[in-house]
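[User] I wish I could look at a protein chain and see how it folds. I have put the entry right below:
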Amino acid sequence: MAELNLDFLVLPTYTKYSLGIADNSIYPNDPPTVISPTLEITVPGGHNSVSIVFNIQDFNVLNSTMLGITSQGKEEALPDGVYTIRYSVTPSYINFIEKSFMRVNQLLEKYDEAFLTLEMMQCDLSIKRQQKVTLSTINFFIQGAISAANNCAINDAVTLYKKASTMLDQFINNGKCCGNNFIVNYV
């Protein structure tokens, strides 16, 4: 007979309005008999952590109301940042798993919009090359933030996220040409 092995996956929902969490646990009984399956989620941005009943062996989709950010009917985009999720069953002092991850959905939405402008612009080749390098650099920082959060390097994750966000804002607000990254790194 298998032993209890709690696990969950944070899966993309492809929207900034929801968070998807799938149960990936191994339960000793079939059907599973667990008591009080609970997710405790800490949302970035100074929000209180919230406890939610976790539907085992299922895909749980959460929104801003379920996470205690907004009231029913006033759902909004979930904030980017480092989320901490703890899945536990009774007794929770021995049966739990905790993970942190960096949510970047809003930043990626801005990145996608900036990226799509490349093909529509009528610039000379060196400017287009510079823009591609700048966007590649921004993407590198975004991926670094995600990797840092996945490896519990929260301060590094936040620093990398802020750097990517600042560079993206400069790219969007300064006519798409924002520096000499290509010259410095590739010439």
About this structure: The chain has two domains: 8-103, 105-186. Residues 182-187 have pLDDT under 50 and may be disordered.
